[in-house]
Write a structure and sequence with these properties.
81% helix, 8 helices, mainly alpha
């Protein structure tokens, strides 16, 4: 608890309450975002499960016996169609697994948010108490309740050497303390968004390198022909690219949530395009009648576009962070 006679201690208390209130506001907005994401994830998983069932049924039909399929098999059509349907089934399975993983990660973050909200407690009650105490502190610090010569009951609660400030001046000081607490909280939000953006930028650089080597390899394989004995290397490269793109999608989700926090807290609003679903796009291209080189190239172009967008976001967030730092320094100077 704080002591009105200790100005520094009370200012720190007021600052902590203001920061907690700001953090609570951020967590409430984040929770709303997570709940919306979970609703979307549930719908996405339902659709992907239905797609997987459909693809499995298609494979089963092709695997079953019929005279027409025997005839098609003689021309090689059935085997080719069966391979395609099995590939589509596997693609649907991978897409479902990715969606379920996204749902699990979102649920885990929601639990962490709820735990933190519980730890913060009733911030509005704390804030109301702080505002009431602030008024008392203003009165005490501005000298309205000084120690009286007659030894009144007020003498025990009033600092013996309170600074000679006007009530208006002391109230302004309290407002500066509260505003600085909010600015410091906003700076932390900016730092978190920047950390997420830089993490995504690094992953995109890695993914671009993976896809770049894949393009070179795909062109080489096309020149040698499909029977060049590189099938195992082919699968390894595709798996590596798919893993990298799935990681990109996860980091895109993280950054999008951080940017949503900045927007809802009125720190900065950044319009973003269709960033996510790079993994889905890659899977989709794998099933098209294109060369391996074209499929890898399409994914590489998507990653290149994302890298440009992330650079733009980082620049905008850095500028806003610099503005907040300037405001924080100005508040300190004004207070002093």
């Amino acid at each position: 608890m704080f002591d009105l006679n200790d100005n520094e201690a009370f200012q720190r208390h007021l600052s902590r309450v203001a920061e907690a209130r700001r953090e609570h506001s951020r967590l409430v907005t984040r929770r709303a975002t997570l709940e919306a994401d979970l609703e979307t994830a549930a719908e996405d998983i339902k659709a992907r499960r239905e797609q997987l069932v459909k693809e499995h049924e298609d494979v089963t039909k092709l695997e079953s016996f019929s005279l027409s399929r025997v005839f098609n098999s003689m021309r090689g059509e059935r085997d080719e169609e069966l391979r395609r349907e099995m590939a589509e089934r596997e693609t649907a399975r991978l897409a479902l697994l990715a969606a379920e993983e996204h749902q699990r990660e979102t649920l885990q973050e929601l639990v962490l948010v709820d735990d933190r909200l519980a730890a913060l407690g009733d911030v509005e009650a704390d804030w109301a108490e702080a505002i009431e105490a602030r008024q008392r502190w203003v009165e005490v610090t501005s000298g309205q309740l000084r120690t009286r010569d007659n030894g009144s009951a007020d003498s025990a609660t009033v600092p013996a050497a309170a600074p000679e400030l006007s009530e208006a001046g002391t109230a302004q000081l309290a407002e500066l303390i509260e505003r600085r607490a909010v600015v410091e909280s906003d700076l932390r939000e900016v730092d978190e968004a920047l950390a997420a953006a830089h993490l995504l930028a690094a992953k995109l650089a890695h993914t671009a390198a993976v896809l770049g080597s894949g393009q070179s390899w795909a062109a080489y394989q096309s020149w040698l022909g499909e029977d060049s004995g590189t099938g195992s290397y082919d699968r390894d490269k595709l798996d590596e690219a798919a893993t990298a793109l799935r990681d990109v999608d996860g980091l895109v989700t993280l950054l999008r949530r951080e940017l949503d926090d900045l927007a809802r807290l009125d720190i900065i609003k950044i319009e973003v395009g269709e960033w996510d679903r790079t993994f889905d796009s890659f899977l989709h291209h794998l099933l098209q009648d294109e060369s391996i080189e074209d499929k890898v190239k399409a994914a590489a172009e998507k990653v290149a576009q994302l890298r440009v967008e992330i650079s733009r976001v980082i620049s905008l967030v850095v500028v806003q962070g610099q503005r907040l730092v300037t405001e924080a320094n100005d508040l300190v100077a004004t207070r002093d």
